[in-house]
Amino acid sequence: MSVDGKLVSEIGPGLLVLLGVGQGDEERDADWLADKVRTLRVFADADGRMNEPLGDRQVLCVSQFTLYGDARRGNRPSWVAAAEPERAQSLYERFCERLDAWRGVFGAMMAVELVNDGPVTLMLESPVRAPG
Known about the structure:
Elements: E1 2-3, E2 6-7, E3 14-19, H1 27-39, E4 43-44, E5 50-52, E6 58-63, H2 85-99, E7 102-103, E8 110-111
Parallel strand pairs: 3-6, 6-7
Antiparallel strand pairs: 1-2, 1-8, 4-5
């Protein structure tokens, strides 16, 4: 991952996480997602089946508010469902710390290079939680 042509983060085999933080997301959502990413069995075992969790592999996490873009009306996406930057950054940092993830630069224009080995792409969302 590069910012302004300078390498800022790089990992070997592991996961690239594009993390969107939405309005109403809380610390428990960040914790749940980090724990879920850690335990997902998405890596090949000795028989070539997706049966191994993250283990010693690395995670590169990129803050991605554009995942909350709503383009159902008109031609310009709306990002009103995305969390405010201060809140999003706090939850992004919490998620990264819990996973010991390598990071991008929050709010920066980043160039991300990916070798998608599989390819496997999943969308994870924390469960809907009752208030309190």
